[in-house]
Amino acid sequence: MKKAFGPLAALVGVMFVAAPFVVANAPYESTMGLVQKIFYFHVPSWFAMFTAIGICGVASLYHLFKNSPKADRLAEAAGELAVLFGLMGLVTGPLWGRKSWGVWWQWDAKLTIALLLEMTFISGILVRKYGGPGSDKLAAAVGIFGLAVTPFVYEAVNIWRTIHPLTSVVPTLSAAMAGPFWFCVSAFMLLLVVLLTLRVNLGARQAALDELYLAQED
């Protein structure tokens, strides 16, 4: 992974530089026009968030039962990135909604659960920082809870009446829209891999430094 990291990071940089041009060349949606192009960044950010939550939840579950420091570092890194990509989604969503719905925010089921999910993973970060001894186990429980809540965010538009578009929109995209969309999804997913690798390595270095401090004190 060390040899591949440099080229991968460079590829991600190139893809994000190219993304605005790719999106600009995508056709306009018939009813929303130009504002619909936020879709190409809004939805991929949620793809990355859901993936980060999945990684965090699985790693948290493993750490909770196996007491694995490596799994804990992976869960911590993925949880922080879930917050980052979730924030992207919560910012781009109202920008889109203001032009499409006429309001910045609606307290409907999907939006409200998405906000609560973001707050859940923020609470996981706070638990790690201020929870004291055993906070890693508490944070793992928070990560598992977040993973359990995630399907409700995705299925909310199918369970309750909301103003948010249905999840069936993506499979119905025309070829001219699907190409740019999946290009952006790929860019966000590769960005997740790059940031996750960096954060896990940072966590490993911090753990090694803590061990040196403890050894010096002994």
Describe the structure.
By secondary structure, the protein is an all-alpha fold. It has one domain. It is built from 6 helices and no strands. It starts with a helix and ends with a helix. The model has no long low-confidence stretch (mean pLDDT 90).
Our measurement of the CA-to-CA distance between the termini, rounded to an integer number of angstroms, reads 35 Å
Shape: globular
Give the overall average pLDDT. 90
- Uncertain spans, ≥5 residues at pLDDT below 50? none
Helix-residue proportion: over 70%
- What pattern of helices and strands is seen along the backbone? HHHHHH
What fraction of the residues are assigned to beta strands by DSSP?
under 5%
Total of DSSP H or I helical runs spanning 4+ residues: 6
Tally of structural domains = 1
What is the structural class?
mainly alpha
Tally of strands: 0
Radius of gyration: 19 Å
Biggest beta sheet attributes: none
Question: Which structural traits does this protein have?
Answer:
218 residues; mainly alpha
Helix-strand blueprint:
Elements: H1 2-24, H2 39-66, H3 69-100, H4 109-130, H5 135-159, H6 175-217
Compact overview of the structure:
By secondary structure, the chain is mostly helical. It has helices at 2-24, 39-66, 69-100, 109-130, 135-159, 175-217.
